Each structure stands twice: as structure tokens, then as C-alpha cells.
Amino acid sequence: MIAKAKWLNRIQWDENGLVPVIAQEVGSNDVLMFAWMNREALARTVDIGQAVYWSRSRKKLWHKGEESGHFQKVHEIRLDCDEDVVLLKVEQVGGLACHTGRHSCFFSKFEPKDGQPDWVEIDPVLKDPDHIYKKHDD
Questions:
Q1: What is the enclosing helix (H) or strand (E) of 37?
Q2: What are all long-range contacts of 129-135, with beta carbons under 8 Å and residues at least 24 apart?
Q3: 2-95 under CATH 3.90.1150.10, yes or no
Q4: What per-residue confidence (pLDDT) applies to 138?
Q5: Rounded to two decimals, what is the model's pTM?
Q6: CA distance 125 to 138
Q7: In what order do the strands lie in the sheet with 19-25?
Q8: Are the C-beta atoms of 92 and 65 separated by less than 8 Å?
């Protein structure tokens, strides 16, 4: 039972029952993305060996890659020293972690541009998002 899992009880869940999660690529150590998990998402991640997050906007579990096919195979799960942040070491299947079609969600870098500080997109779009995601008629 998820609620009684001792290893899950060690995590310092926030007031909404969530914990921040960083997905880091095995091998390159690139930080691919940041997301949230609840107890069920983390337990499911352990069960299936692929990243499952909690979507705060949709208020439901989100199996990374369920629409795009770009799954995250989990190689290792770590907990930080304060026990309030989870690190997933993942293999990014399909190469794209970001919904914008980039390898990483951290593609904007703060640096001077034309003499002014600004955010500069330093990583290219590898695949058009319109070709990644299914269109839904609402």
C-alpha cells in the first residue's frame, strides 16, 4: 500500500503533498527538467521504471512521454540532504525532454545581449512541437 510505504514517509512532502523533482540525464549530467511528484507518482515511477509526475495544472498523474513518446527511463533515484527534493537520473528516450522540442527545458541563458541583460535561447529546437504532440479537440 502506497500510504504505508516507509521509504515514501521519509520524504518531506509540501503542504499540497508534493515534492520537487529534478530530472538529470545519465551520462551527460544535463539537467533536463523540473517537475513535481506526489506519493502515487513516485511509487508508480518506482513500479514501472519510468518517470511519472504530478501535473499541477491538470491535477492528475502525468507519465512523461505518454503523448510525445519521449519517455524517461529511470536509472537512479536520489533524495537531497533535507529530504525535500528528489533527483531522478534518467535516460531520455527519444532525446527530447522539453515540450518546446528541445533536449532540455533549461534552454534560456541569462547574459548580456546588445549591451543589456536578457534571456537568450541557446539550445535549438530539435523537433517542431506540432509534430510531437497529438492535437486534442476540446
A1: strand 31-37
A2: 129/99, 129/100, 129/101, 132/67, 132/68, 132/69, 132/70, 132/96, 132/99, 132/101, 133/67, 133/68, 133/99, 134/67
A3: no
A4: 39
A5: 0.85
A6: 27
A7: 31-37, 19-25, 86-92, 72-79
A8: no
Where is average pLDDT lowest: 7-11, 48-52, 94-98?
Answer: 94-98
Type of residue at 109: K
Q: pLDDT tens, 31-89?
A: 999 999 999 999 999 999 999 999 999 999 999 999 889 999 999 999 999 999 999 99
Residue 131 has pLDDT above 50, yes or no: yes
Q: Where are the domains of the chain?
A: 2-95
Query: In this predicted structure, what is the pLDDT of residue 132?
Result: 77
> Side-chain half-sphere of 27: how many Cα atoms within 13 Å?
5
Please tell me the distance from the alpha carbon of residue 63 to that of residue 103, in angstroms, as a whole number. Answer: 18
Q: Residue 79: name the closest of 11, 1, 5, 9 by CA.
A: 11
CB 132 within 8 A of CB 101: yes
116-126 residues labelled b (16+ CB within 10 A) or e (exposed): eeeeeeebeee
